[in-house]
Amino acid sequence: MSHLPAGAGHDKEAAARAGALAGLLDVAICVAAVCASNSAVLLADALKTFLEFVAMLLAWLALRRISRGASRNFEYGIGKLENLSGLLVGALMILCLLIILGNAIRNFVKPAHVSGAGLWIGIADQLIYFGINTVLCRRSRRAAARENSPALAAQGRLLFTRAVANAFILVALVLSMGLARFGWAVYVDPCASLLIGGSILLAALGTFSSSVYDLLDRTLEEQDQLLILRELAQHFNDYEDLHGIRSRRAGSRVYIEIFLEFAPQQTVAEVQRTINHLSERLQAQLPDSHVSIALADRPPA
C-alpha cells in the first residue's frame, strides 16, 4: 500500500478537522434557526447538516488514527472501521429520514404558514454557506484538474451538491414567506422537506450497499490476477521459482502475498532489489494495495 509522506497526512488531517469544526458551527446555526421557527424544511436542513458533520467527524478521526501510525499495526482493521463508520452514518440517515417524514405528515395534517425569526437566520445561513461552498467547489475543481487528483475531484462534487442544496432551501424559504397570502403556500415547506428527505434516502441506500459489500472479504477480480501474473512473467529471470500467490480484497484495500524462490548464488542485495521493484510496480498499478513478497525454500527432493 502506498503511504503518503507525514506532512501530507497531517495536512489532510488538519483539513478534515477544519471541515468538522465548520460543520459543527453550521449545525449550531441550523438548530438555532429551527428552534426559532416552525419550518419543516429548516428541520430537514438541520438534520442533513448534522449527518454531514458526523461524516466529517468520522473522517477526521480515521485520518487522525492513520496519521499516528494505526494503519501500520491494523492493516486489516482500519478498512473495517471505515465501513462500520459508514454503516453508522447510514443508520443515522434512516433515523433522520423518519423524523423528517413524521414532521412533514404532521404539517400536512395540520398545515400552517411558516413564521418566526428563525426563518431569517435560515436565509442568512443558506446565503453564507452557498457562497462558501461555491468558492470551495471552484478551488477543489481547479486543484483536481491541476494535480489530477480523484480525491479532490470527489470533494469538488460534494461541495457542488452542498451549494445546490443551499440554493434549494433558500428558494423554498423565500417562496414560503413571499407567498404566505395564498392558502396553498402552507404546503411548500413540508413538500420541500420531503425532497430533502428523498435525497437522504438515496444517500442512505448507497451507503448501506457499499459498506455492507466492502465488509465482505473477497478474491481479486480476474483482470487484477492477470496483472499480477504478467508482472511476475516480466521478471521471470530475476527469481528461481514461484511457490504461490495469495490475494484478497478487504473493503477498499487489496492484500497480496507472493512466495518466490531465489537462486542460492544471488546476493541479499539482488534479492531485495527484485522484491522492492516488484512491490512498487504492483502497488502502482493496483490502487490502495499492500504487496508482501516472502522468500520460499526449495522443496525437498
In short:
The chain is mainly α.
Please characterize this protein's 3D structure.
This protein is mainly alpha-helical. It has 2 domains: 6-215, Up-down Bundle (Alpha-lytic protease prodomain-like), CATH 1.20.1510; 222-295, Alpha-Beta Plaits (2-Layer Sandwich), CATH 3.30.70.1350. 71% of the residues lie in helices and 9% in strands. It has 9 helices and 3 strands; from the N terminus they run ααααααααββαβ. It has helices at 6-35, 40-67, 70-73, 75-109, 118-147, 150-178, 188-215, 222-234, 268-285; strands at residues 241-250, 253-261, 289-295.
Shape category: elongated
Number of domain modules: 2
Query: What integer value in Å does the Rg equal?
Result: 26 Å
What is the number of E strands?
3
Enter the CATH topology name of the largest domain.
Alpha-lytic protease prodomain-like
Q: What strand order characterises the main sheet?
A: 1-2-3
Sketch the major β-sheet: 3 strands, mixed
Average pLDDT over all residues: 78
At the first level of CATH, the class of the largest domain is Mainly Alpha
Helix content: over 70%
Q: What structural category do the secondary elements indicate?
A: mainly alpha
- Uncertain runs are 1-9, 70-76
Tell me the number of helical segments per DSSP (H or I, 4 or more residues long). 9
Strand content: 5-15%
N→C terminal distance? 37 Å
CATH architecture of the largest domain: Up-down Bundle
N-to-C SSE series? HHHHHHHHEEHE
